[in-house]
Amino acid sequence: MEMDTGLERKFARFDGDLSVTDGTRIEGYASYFGACDQGGDVVQKGAYAVSLAALARDRRQVKMLWQHDPAQPIGIWDEVREDARGLYVKGRLLDSVEKGREAAALIAAGAIDGLSIGYRTKRAGKTDRGQRLLTELELWEVSLVTFPMLPSARVAAKGESLTDDALRELAAAFDGARQELARG
């Protein structure tokens, strides 16, 4: 039985803004401001600022995990920051860790291409469309995952990107799955 820690997860699929070089170096966006995800949430610009400042003050880092499993760190995020577009991350998969090697191989093969943030909501409101507007988040980790929720942020080999049609198909698939789960 899982203990409720209040930790939420926000999945994101990387587009061409994320690159993987040398099989281990990753950089791109884990979250985009103003983008509505499959759960109906929108992250507001500045939502991570307080959390990132606290992490820096306390000399702690956002963790890089495999599938949100705290027992499976797979790398190091060397840089995590907000900019005008969203939450930018830059780091290294550790090839000295078995899951790090596996993650690098799965990314290279195209089998894994998603990121997901693990966070606790500190403050939220509503958009004029009724979506949850996340205004302050306590960021804990950014994971490589199989099924992301925000189609616009995904892991890609350098120079690779998803087409608009592929993104629409993926969004439709997630919407259908979410509706089925709601009925269940």
From TrEMBL:
Presence of the UniProt keyword DNA damage in the record: no
Chain segments annotated as transmembrane: none
Entries under InterPro entries matching the protein: Peptidase_S78_dom, Prohead_protease
Record-annotated Prohead serine protease domain positions: 22-161
An MF annotation (GO) of this entry: peptidase activity
Any Pfam family the entry gives: Peptidase_S78
Keywords for the protein's UniProt record, in alphabetical order: Hydrolase, Protease, Viral release from host cell
UniProt keyword Hydrolase, yes or no: yes
Example of a GO biological process term: proteolysis
Protein name: Prohead serine protease domain-containing protein
UniProt source species: Thalassovita taeanensis
